[in-house]
Amino acid sequence: MTAPLTDAALATKIATTAGKLLLTLRDSGLFEGKALGQAGDRTANAFIIEALKAARPEDGILSEEEVNDIARCAVSRVWIVDPLDGTREYGEGRSDWAVHIALSIDGEPAIGAVALPALGATLSSDACAGPAVNAGRPRMVVSRSRPAKEALALAEKLGAEVLPMGSAGAKAMAVVRGEADIYLHTGGQYEWDNCAPAAVAKAAGLHVSRADGSPLTYNSENPYLPDLLICRPEAADRILAMIREMPGTE
């Protein structure tokens, strides 16, 4: 008899498998552009929901592609998923999109897996080494389509190199992978956008918080969770102080 998977192993397996399904769908040539993104959202979501219900039937689920059932708020363990983070990038044939599978326990981002299918990688909170120290100019990932003014202002203050990138998961994992040093987002997100990235980044020893330094908490009735900071822990105090000094962030 096969031993049951741990929560972390389950998250990793589901994220990786969903990513493979999305690659197969894209490679089929049956859909293009926006239609491909929509088909990807539906296909990945259907698989993820079925897999989670089969493996953890007592747990709650919050997915971007499902109706928000607030009955989950009475449950300690809730899976928070984004079946296709970066739908536009996926539909455009880019590599900066992701699959997010996270488990929130009592509001904490306890377990997470972020698959980067086009890069052939899945990063998990169960096995994630911290990035190497960058001794050069700081590198900061920002949205490639709508960079937040606070992020651009912080980059200017730090003299940082700005790296435009697609999905939230791709940007967060760029910091975990050591390809960037800072990810500040203030333009609006939901729990499914950042729960799995937060869990993986925390496991890698990075600083993870709201933009004001307060903790990220999950499984709220309203899943809107608009801002996020991921950076090296030794830089966090300086970065947070700079953010507080910005107009309108007092």
Can you lay out the helices and strands and say which pair or pack?
Elements lengths: L6 H21 L5 H23 L4 E4 L13 E9 L1 H5 L6 E8 L2 E9 L4 E4 L14 E5 L5 H10 L2 E5 L2 H9 L5 E4 L5 H13 L3 E3 L18 E4 L1 H13 L5
Parallel strand pairs: 1-2, 6-7, 6-8
Antiparallel strand pairs: 2-3, 3-4, 4-5, 8-10, 9-10
Helix pairs in contact: 1-2, 5-6
Distance between the termini: 57 Å
Q: Please give the share of residues in helix.
A: 25-40%
Order of helices and strands: HHEEHEEEEHEHEHEEH
Strand order of the largest sheet: 1-2-3-4-5
Query: Can you tell me the number of structural domains?
Result: 2
What structural category do the secondary elements indicate? alpha/beta
The CATH superfamily of the largest domain turns out to be Fructose-1,6-Bisphosphatase, subunit A, domain 1
Total E-strand runs: 10
CATH topology of the largest domain: Fructose-1,6-Bisphosphatase, Chain A, domain 1
Radius of gyration: 17 Å
User: Main beta sheet: strand number and arrangement?
Assistant: 5 strands, mixed
Q: Would you identify the regions where 5 or more consecutive residues have pLDDT less than 50?
A: none
Strand content: 15-25%
Mean of residue pLDDT values: 95
What is the count of DSSP helices, taking H or I runs of 4+ residues?
7
What is the correct CATH architecture of the largest domain? 2-Layer Sandwich
CATH class wording of the largest domain: Alpha Beta
Keywords: Hydrolase
GO molecular function: 3'(2'),5'-bisphosphate nucleotidase activity
Organism: Sphingomonas vulcanisoli
Pfam family, one: Inositol_P
